[in-house]
Write a structure and sequence with these properties.
alpha+beta, 3 domains, 5-stranded antiparallel beta sheet, about 40% helix, about 15% strand
Amino acid sequence: MVAQRSPLSEKESRKRRSFREIWKETFAKTKEAKERQHFVKTDCRAFNTLLKFFGENLFNVMVRENLEGANWKTRYKHPTPPRNLQALYYDKNLIVGMRFNILTRVLILDIDQGSLYHPANDEAEYHRLLGVLEEMGLVGVEVVQSSFSGGLHLYIPLAKPVPSWLAAHALYVVLSKAKFRIVKGHLEIFPNRKGYSTERIINYNGIRLPLQPGTGSYVLDQLNFSPVHSDLRLFIKDLKHHAKRQDMVAFRQVMEGAYQDFGVSSRGFVKGRNGSAADWHNDLLIRLEQGWTGDAQTNDLVFEAVKEAYVFQHLDGEELVKKTAAYMRELPGYKQYCGHQHNLEQRVRDWLKSTKNLGYYPYTGEYRIREGSHYGSTVALTRAAGKEDGRKYNRANAARKQVARDKLAKVIRILRHLISSRSITGLPETLTGLLELISRIAKEECGVGFSRPFLEKFKGLLGKIRQYAQRRSEGETGELSVPPEEEKASEETPEAAALKACSTTREKSDIEEGAESLVEKGVFSNRENNEGVGGEEKISAGLVGLSRLERIKLYRENRTVLRYTGRRVHHFVELLLSSSTKPKTQCRFLHPGDLVHLTDEYHSREEQDGIVCVKLLTDPPGEQWLGSLFVKVDKLVPV
């Protein structure tokens, strides 16, 4: 079996260094360099930590005058120790920058004021950029205004140092494949993807240090991009917090995948290294032939062996487990370094399951859409971008998109019924206000809102909502047309079916609605809830001298039986039935004359508007309410 897996001989002559070798070499070089450097730290802990994030490259400090049009000058002749750098940092007449070192603990994206990706120019593209970073495992981002020009520096701190070249290469590959233009004036990456020369040393590009006094640098609010502070101590605290949030395992996998599968031409074009199945097969065999060379390598080697057996040998099940385990035991270093000799077969089974879940399939010479990726959904999913054979389609994204469209259809129905029942007398005049209203309803009813870029795709539908609201306000009748695909998709779900049935009842009876969550939050400042047909009932003689809050307290403590005198209302209420362990949502009605009692659930608008939570006395036995009906206490009288 070993002979069957030996790589081609011509491949050995052009073997590249592995990702693991480059990783180890980089850290070894850094260790040697640190042993030759001895600099006294400053008395400011935050400033010392800032230099650690940048890699402490004190031999490539840049300085320029704090004047428009001044040129940068690099202090090549001698290093700039931390204390001297601190003095330059707090000099308001100077601007200080640093070049990155071999290792870095921070990545920075530079977005100029006139960039296509600046939120002031295209907020959707800006959020798409953050989404790509999140898919790489980089979820923690601190936004800083770079200078008075209004440009942005997105600081991405890392929990551990990583090789600067590998991180820059991964960022360049992933963002380029996601169709971002990485050019000066729009989007720049720090550390940058620098070249290599045998004749001279090529340094990384430098970038100014953040929050220097007199430079217009501030930490910005990530929602409205207004200045928050320029305190270096708080900035370092936030960087440490964001660093803990990063998924370093996922980011290392992205770096490894970008290094193994992609290169960058001299003109900046990203090209795949493994252009054919034969090349990838031989790369797998080369990585396997050396076997174990140290501890903690079993999982990586088993994963490679399972991919080779499943994809190229078309093995599966226990046959694959048996043959792969036998092959692994014959590799060099197995007895010396493998720590899973007692359960090697189980390790193979686990990795076979993961390999299938990640989308690998037996290769037969024909291309097939792969739904997963072995190093994240960024590089692999954008790998075949631009092809015309359907490779650009991604089923996972399509499924998420359909779920969002179904949820939007449900929210539009709720908004329509709020308009028709006059719970809303007018929509916000601005597009932003309308989008926020729809997103707020979604959060209340579905638990999750919508992003602005998603809602902006349905501007035509939003225009129909405004027309519908205008016709209702003018006393006309009109139907709000929902896109057929959303109408069909929403009717397929039980929640949408229940909503439709309840909505039909509401239209037929022309009742007043006070949607539970919306009234509770005070989203709509419209008509009073539960206006009575015949006006308010007279309060009992014994309660005349009590205030509204005193009456509510008395009703609740004594479990007073009350009669409802307002108009008929209904809400969606969560119920826990005796025969079920999961709550179900049902539409419950409250009619004039129904007997109720106040619950122990305190409402946030009791003091302001007198809205209280009630439950019917005629509940079926074994039924527990997890959500209540909301009415005005003035429409309740003691029996």
